[in-house]
Amino acid sequence: MPNKPKPPPKGWLWSQDAADYIGVHVVTLHRWRRDGTGPKSVLHGRRRYAYKISDLDAWMNGDTADDQPHRARAAA
């Protein structure tokens, strides 16, 4: 039986789940993180990033330093 990854802390999502939650591809989320844009993330351990659900919601509503989410800009 392969090792199952640990679930994220309560109220947080791993990168893949966060990307699904906001409706973008995980590579887009990685690129935003690299470029210093997009929703706030936290390095959890050595290689995994976690996203707080409330931060994702705030980012999608435009309640962050970015004036509006990239998803909304791309749709326009």
Task: Draw up the topology in text.
Elements: E1 12-14, H1 15-22, H2 26-35, E2 42-44, E3 48-52, H3 53-60, H4 70-75
Helix pairs in contact: 1-2
At a glance:
With 76 residues, this protein is an alpha+beta fold. 42% of the residues lie in helices and 14% in strands. α1 crosses α2.
Can you describe what's shown?
This protein has 76 residues and is an alpha+beta fold. 42% of the residues lie in helices and 14% in strands. The chain contains four helices and three strands. A three-stranded antiparallel sheet has the order 1-3-2. A hairpin with a 3-residue loop joins strand 2 (42-44) and strand 3. Helix 1 (15-22) crosses helix 2.
Mean pLDDT: 83
Q: Give the topology string: H per helix, E per strand.
A: EHHEEHH
Query: What is the count of β-strands?
Result: 3
Helix/sheet category: alpha+beta
- Work out the strand percent: 5-15%
Which bin fits the share of residues in helices? 40-55%
Major sheet description? 3 strands, antiparallel
Q: Quaternary arrangement of the chains shown?
A: single chain
